[in-house]
């Protein structure tokens, strides 16, 4: 059994991409409900995460719409990544964007910690606060990116809901799937196997092709785009995890301002396993850039 770490009421087991992630058999220790305890816990969480995230290094493999995150004055997206990779998004907290976080008790702790770290949040989910969150996202989509973890807050893991498609059609922003791979991380015994990257490790991001959802949608089109978006995010995640595991050569990182013009990372066979769906753009040679948390 590998070394363990307790954080935010979760017991975590150290894993890396070179080992099977199957060594966690524990359960959640407690759930915070008291507002004062939530505020205290969010302060402590932010105090721990701020120096922790500063040790992490991110490598972004840009897709056809790169570089990412895009300048919202030119192009805005609905960025989607799986809930288990939420901590990785903190590397981009200096970039304009709003993260959708549910209104349940755990979501309150996460939201307050995010705000203390400078991450803008939108509160709501399909179960609670959805209408208010939808109105807020419609307004913010005119000036900011929207970041969604589509399988949160309760799963099932790595499944795309219809709501993401309906939202994209309503706000008129393309969906941009972002795959995340961890060089080394602790994994929680939770429904999503929440990942906590180990200090001084590298997180690999792969930005897929943008998926443009029309405003007029019937049930059949919603399901078509749902399947397409889910497949695209799974393929982007697979590619990022392969890069993190060192399964294919990765070009020498460029500076973020140069990464989208020079260099490329060759395809590693994931296009054969998951062919591009009919509505997404074709994927040209991607280019990586490096990112260090600040």
Count of helical regions: 6
Uncertain residue segments: 1-30, 249-287, 290-294
Q: Which series of helices and strands comes N to C?
A: EEHEEEHEHEHEEEEHHE
Number of strands: 12
Percent of residues in beta strands?
Answer: 15-25%
Helix proportion range: 25-40%
Describe this structure in words.
- By secondary structure, the protein is of the alpha/beta class.
- It has helices at residues 35-54, 105-116, 130-140, 162-171, 219-245, 270-273; strands at 4-7, 10-16, 57-62, 78-80, 97-101, 120-123, 145-148, 175-182, 184-188, 195-197, 202-207, 287-292.
- The chain has an 8-stranded mixed sheet with strand order 6-5-7-4-8-11-3-12. Strands 1-2-9-10 form a 4-stranded antiparallel sheet, with no helix packed on it.
- Helix 1 (35-54) packs across helix 2 (105-116) and helix 4 crosses helix 5 (219-245).
- The chain is globular and about 45 Å long.
- The two termini are 33 Å apart.
- The model is unreliable at 1-30, 249-287 and 290-294 (pLDDT under 50).
What's the arrangement of secondary structure elements?
Elements: E1 4-7, E2 10-16, H1 35-54, E3 57-62, E4 78-80, E5 97-101, H2 105-116, E6 120-123, H3 130-140, E7 145-148, H4 162-171, E8 175-182, E9 184-188, E10 195-197, E11 202-207, H5 219-245, H6 270-273, E12 287-292
Parallel strand pairs: 3-11, 4-7, 4-8, 5-6, 5-7
Antiparallel strand pairs: 1-2, 2-9, 3-12, 8-11, 9-10
């Amino acid at each position: 059994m590998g070394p363990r770490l307790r954080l935010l009421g979760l017991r975590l087991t150290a894993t890396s991409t070179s080992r099977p992630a199957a060594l966690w058999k524990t359960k959640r220790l407690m759930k915070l409900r008291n507002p004062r305890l939530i505020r205290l816990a969010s302060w402590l969480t932010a105090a721990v995460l701020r120096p922790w995230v500063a040790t992490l290094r991110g490598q972004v493999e840009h897709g056809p719409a790169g570089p990412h995150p895009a300048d919202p004055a030119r192009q805005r997206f609905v960025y989607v990544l799986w809930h288990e990779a939420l901590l990785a998004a903190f590397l981009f907290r200096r970039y304009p964007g709003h993260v959708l976080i549910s209104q349940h008790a755990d979501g309150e702790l996460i939201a307050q910690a995010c705000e203390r770290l400078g991450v803008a949040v939108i509160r709501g989910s399909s179960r609670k606060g959805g209408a208010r969150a939808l109105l807020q996202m419609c307004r913010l989509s005119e000036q900011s990116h929207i970041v969604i973890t589509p399988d949160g807050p309760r799963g099932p893991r790595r499944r795309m809901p219809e709501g993401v498609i309906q939202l994209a059609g309503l706000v008129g922003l393309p969906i941009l799937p972002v795959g995340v791979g961890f060089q080394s991380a602790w994994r929680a015994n939770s429904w999503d196997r929440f990942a906590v990257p180990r200090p001084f490790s590298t997180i690999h991001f792969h930005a897929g092709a943008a998926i443009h959802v029309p405003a007029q949608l019937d049930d059949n089109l919603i399901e078509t785009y749902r399947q397409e978006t889910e497949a695209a995010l799974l393929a982007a995640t697979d590619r990022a995890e392969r890069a993190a595991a060192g399964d294919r050569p990765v070009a020498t990182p460029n500076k973020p301002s140069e990464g989208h013009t020079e260099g490329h990372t060759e395809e590693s066979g994931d296009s054969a396993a998951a062919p591009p769906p009919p509505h997404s753009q074709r994927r040209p040679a991607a280019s990586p850039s490096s990112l260090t948390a600040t």
